[in-house]
Amino acid sequence: DGKGGLKVDKGQTLDPKDAIDVKDADGKETTLPEKSKVEWTKDKEPDFSQAGKDVTGEVTVTYPDHT
Predict the structure, then answer these.
(1) Global confidence as pTM
(2) Cα 47 to Cα 63: distance, rounded to the nearest angstrom
(3) Contact 29, 35 (CB under 8 A)
(4) Contacts for 3-10 with beta carbons within 8 Å, 24 or more apart?
(5) Where along the chain do its domains lie?
(6) Rg (CA), the chain
(7) CB distance 52 to 36 below 8 Å
(8) Could you tell me which of 63, 2, 6 has the C-alpha nearest to residue 32?
(9) How far apart are CA 41 and CA 11, in angstroms?
(10) Are 61 and 4 in contact (CB under 8 A)?
(11) CA 55 to CA 28: how far, in whole Å?
(12) Which of 55, 61, 60, 59 is closest to 8 using CA atoms?
């Protein structure tokens, strides 16, 4: 799930790891496996160039086994 209500200053960036909540199948908070890759999805990165604008982005998580 994504985190709502995050605030980022104009021109700053947000680490995609900080934009997601990681939960197991039961909805309990958990962590990603070691060496998981979390990145903004190509062409769906949030645009932080304008102050006061609500933006969305999409995150892709790749597990160590590449799934």
Answers:
(1) 0.76
(2) 26
(3) no
(4) 8/46, 8/48, 9/48, 9/51, 10/48, 10/49, 10/50, 10/51
(5) 1-67
(6) 13
(7) no
(8) 63
(9) 19
(10) no
(11) 27
(12) 55
* Residue range 19-56, pLDDT digits in tens: 999 999 999 999 999 999 999 999 999 998 887 888 88
Q: What is the pLDDT of residue 65?
A: 94
Q: Which amino acid is at 3?
A: K
Q: If we measure between CA atoms, which residue out of 6, 5, 7, 10 comes closest to residue 49?
A: 10
Which of 20, 8, 17, 15 is CA-nearest to residue 48? Answer: 8
Cα 21 to Cα 52: distance, rounded to the nearest angstrom: 24
Q: Tokens 């903004």 belong to which residue?
A: 40
Distance, in Å, from the CA atom of 55 to the CA atom of 67, rounded to the nearest integer, reads 27
